[in-house]
């Protein structure tokens, strides 16, 4: 059971994030929701690469006596996660700057009131 | 090895590298002078065009190409990314560079009075890079990275008219939709990696077992890519963004949208190609289920697009809804082809669908450019405020009429060929589908005839006394697209035989795509 907890956390985070994106009215909270989804997905990638008792996946400085690659944590998911974190930061910055501009134009962060694009 | 051979060998990398590097060089070049910068953007896109052409001629004559970034052979540790270019990918790349060149020519005049154009061209080249990357890559994580690049860069471009609240609203909608979609694609990638310990599309397609998790991942991929491609019921961002971004940008965003559509083709035909005939419950093969779901969503898209376009008064937004309907036609063809996999008309449907990608790019692109020209000279968006433009804007009127007939699928123009292929094949699957598709086309004709009367014919408004014809570079860009529409309408076989049929057979022959990587390298 205990080994499933991270996966449950992943699903919970993604669902919480989706809830925030779909049902929250404040733009900042929508942005937070997307961040939570992103953290959930990143967590998912990290758990995939985890090995019980594995060492850091640095090929040139493996501790002597470790079996390659069985005793190494998988390196690929970590690389993926790093990439995804960097992309996430860029998206977050862009979204927040958009929110800032929207607040200047409309004077509110409520999605219900920011609706000039109707129909 | 001669210089040309070396270029040919590295062309898949150069296709990506040229726009990417010139995107970041562009602000530097822009310091010199605005004219130099505009020419530089066009020249670099021209160079990209040459590389795409070189690659296309090679791929079409010698079969798919694999290009390896990183470790050349399979020794440990394995750090590499593969690009796999087949005729489908190259077909999409040709559409992308074509749209990009036309958008740049158009924006010369269209955005002459705006500032911040250094960043504009940088972002434009980045979107082109990302669309090309999505189309040429053979690695699913790489696909995700390019998707995110396209999402970030297009969002910034949509908000180009940052002084308008509506543009910001549209940009925010776009980035929420596409970043959530992209994150779910990453989730699906994680699911694949967990099961098969691979990220390469060909390797994954070879190993795919169609377990419960794979089905789940398929649903996620279809939903998120469909969302980015503008398939109903997640289409609502599309008219907003298309209606509010500068029309030159719409062409670029359209190429990113079409790249997402290409992603769906790749997922369904290549990724799940091995398991499409597996039986699900009630002895229904998987391809029938997937196909009919796509068809249902496509019909909804066509109907929503057409009906909503009928009631619009904002011209750009109206064309945005028509774009939704056109996306619906593509999905209808693909769905019919998947649902009837193996039947002779499945191939015809696929030909129609793939040809319609090109025609959609040309027709909708042309209409957006015309609407942009109207906006440029009158500064009005609503159809109620413009009238009698045919008196002063003769060329624009002609281009609009060409676009109108092409979108509605009238015979001498390009829309006819692809739509006819779609009607013909879909009829054999189920006649009702083809009736709905025909009805959609007729309504499209009605919508645009209404626009023609409202905007171009009729009495001249006093407010529009000083209106002149659109500037030359805009006319040139529209002329290119109109020329394509007429040329392909008259000689559809040229395009069908050289590009569309190889692309369709590349999609159907997933075994070849897989064996390029799994067998040898």
What's the structural blueprint in terms of helices and strands?
The complex is a heterodimer of chains A (119) and B (521).
Chain A: H1 5-23, H2 27-49, H3 75-106
Chain B: H1 3-9, H2 11-32, H3 34-62, E1 65-70, E2 80-85, H4 87-110, H5 117-136, H6 140-158, H7 165-196, H8 201-207, H9 212-229, H10 237-244, H11 247-271, H12 286-311, H13 315-339, H14 344-378, H15 394-407, H16 414-429, H17 431-456, H18 472-490, H19 492-508, H20 510-518
Antiparallel strand pairs in B: 1-2
Description:
- The complex is a heterodimer of chains A (119) and B (521).
- Chain A contains three helices and no strands.
- By secondary structure, chain A is mainly alpha-helical.
- Chain A has one domain (2-106): Helix Hairpins.
- In chain A, helix 1 (5-23) packs antiparallel against helix 2 (27-49) and helix 2 runs antiparallel to helix 3.
- Chain A is elongated.
- A two-stranded antiparallel ribbon of chain B has the order 1-2.
- With 521 residues, chain B is an all-alpha fold.
- The radius of gyration of chain B is 22 Å and the shape is globular.
- Chain B has a domain at 276-490.
- The model of chain B has no long low-confidence stretch (mean pLDDT 88).
- Chain B is 76% helix and 2% strand.
- In chain B, helix 14 (344-378) runs antiparallel to helix 18 (472-490).
- Chain B is built from 20 helices and two strands.
Give the structure's gist in a few sentences.
The complex is a heterodimer of chains A (119) and B (521). By secondary structure, chain A is mainly α.
